[in-house]
Amino acid sequence: MFHKPITIFLLLVATMCSGQSVRFISNLQSAINMAQSQNKLIFVDTYAQWCIPCKKMEKEFRDPALASYFNNKFVNVRIDMDSEHGKELHRNYDVIFLPTLMILDKNGGLKFSVDRAMTAKSLLDIAQKIAEPEIYAYHPPSFPPPVKKPIVNDPPPTQTLESKIPRKIVEKPDLPVDEVVVNPPSTQSSNSDTNRVPTDNIEGTVTTQKIIHVFDPNSDDLPPEILRQEAYLRLQLMDGSHKAASKKYLNTQSDWTSEDNMSFILDFLHSTESREFQHVINNRERYEELFGKDRVYKNISYLVYDRLNRGFPRPTFEETKDLFSYLDPIRFEQYAYEHYMESLYTRGKSKEYGVKAEEYISSVHSKNDQVYYRLALIYAEDKRPGKFLRSMYCIKKAVEINPHNYQYFDTQAYLYYRDGNKRQALKSAKTAKSLATKNGQDIKDIEMLIRMIQEDL
Predict the structure, then answer these.
(1) 23-49 pLDDT, tens per residue?
(2) What's the rounded Cα separation, in Å, for the pair 299 and 302?
(3) Which CATH number fits domain 21-131: 3.30.420.40, 3.40.50.80, 3.30.300.30, 3.40.30.10?
(4) Within its chain, how far is the Cα of 100 from the centroid?
(5) Tens of pLDDT, residues 108-160
(6) What are the structural domain ranges in the chain?
(7) Cα torsion for 112, 114, 117, 119, to the nearest 10°?
(8) Closest CA to 310 of 24, 45, 27, 54
């Protein structure tokens, strides 16, 4: 008679636990149908198995406040971008980085988009303002004038090329405003540039003065000065709308080589696959002359690594080489091989990894012990003729290059034992145990291998 209450309790616990995460469906068209019938907005999360920032969003989606609100106010859909459905989403919504988070209206029209991971608090804040603007009233903030920081030359790198890449500081995003205040350009001029906006009317600044002009951002006949100001405003709002706004302004400009336009382009770089990025690459010396090598390098490198690590679709090997050539024209091929091979290995593409690793060893770097070790593991599982012998060769090379890694000797012991060479297997296993003990590693598995070999001698 006690089973029924216990069962009810377990069901309640399961229900409560299931409510602690955002509930997703996997088809956008189904989400649109549901949103139309329920009169709800649509939240879209894009991901891929290889995307590390996407996995970090899992924790945010388990936030109780976020989960409760999104499950109540939105139809939530999660799209695997490596699927056919994901490729269609890529074409229709121009998804180029993962994760891209979007809020759509009930018909699938885009209302908000951001191509980075977000905290639960920031995402909830945005969702509330979009879903219930009458409750969560939005007051446009007043932004301070943008300050150009002095260029500080970094010390020369001491580790890897990727360690030079700056960490992007992500601020709390706000909503785009429906009415933007634009003041007429002042006739006041500065000593350095008569075309610059005076300090009391900075580009992208939302003022609290009287509204004297409200424009439709979708209009095609806005003057370039207004489009430029709108672009800077939307850049500060951090809602993703600055990309389209910047393109509108640049489409009005026949000369991209003016200092003002080159400064604008550098401020709005967002993708290595854009015309703006190619303009920087083609005119790199001029950009460096105007804005300093350090700033130009950081802008380029940030986008390069964004494309390599979060870009969709995944960059090909040839594109990977091109991307690294922008950072290091001398060693770009080595960096490209190592990055591309790491991507293949982490995705479990062992056959493709083997092909690239053999190319890398023969033409780029023949003394990378980790590559030999990974090849030994891959070939040890390959049943094709000759692959086991290749596995033995690769593990010997790994041990020869780095005789201090206990894992190499452990793997060598296993391969010797499998090949019937038990005495060599025991010798390698004991070396592995000695090295592991010195390094404070767990030796239980090695001791088990040693006992197995000894019993079989």
Answers:
(1) 999 999 999 999 999 999 999 999 999
(2) 5
(3) 3.40.30.10
(4) 9
(5) 999 999 999 999 999 999 999 999 998 875 554 444 454 444 444 444 444 45
(6) 21-131, 161-189+207-314
(7) -40
(8) 54
